[in-house]
Amino acid sequence: MLSDADLVKRVLMGDRSAYGELFERYERSVLAVGLSVLGDLHAAQDVSQETFVMAYEKLPALRRGSSFGVWVQRIARNEAIGYVRRLQRRQSAEESSHRQKTRSDNHRLDAVGEKLLKDVLRLPRHERSVVMLHYFEAHPVKAVSAMTGRPVGTVTMQLSRARARLLKWLKESAL
User: Fold this and answer.
1) What structural domains and CATH numbers belong to the chain?
2) 29-39 per-position pLDDT tens digit
3) pTM of the full predicted structure?
4) Element containing residue 66 per DSSP (H, E)
């Protein structure tokens, strides 16, 4: 399995299939970021598509290919926030009430899921990236190790610390 840095190099050399691999690797985590901001699956899917188009266009500006995952998630968050701002400017009071109804349908995360997703985004960058790859993208620890260029033991320790931190935050919010 190629690392993110290797895939980015291949994309910059004209290999579009390498970008497809990056897309598959981060598709779910980018969608999760959009969903955490927007709370609506369809809007998050739109933002996800825009994110990957923008990331492809801006890829030459990425200094460290190994940080592609964190970088694309940051783009997704900014795109989702921009989406909300554009939506708010366009909608009248009547449309706003319709949006509230739509957001409460079955695509909306439950309160615990939403809190957990927000907490994952609060994790330090090194922990957040391995959590997203392992739990959101369902990559085994060994694959996460290869993608990030970190030893398996380091990835395992980062996952363990992230789980402990998330559990602590969830318990604190339940009080």
Assistant:
1) 1-108 (1.10.1740.10), 109-175 (1.10.10.10)
2) 999 999 888 88
3) 0.62
4) none
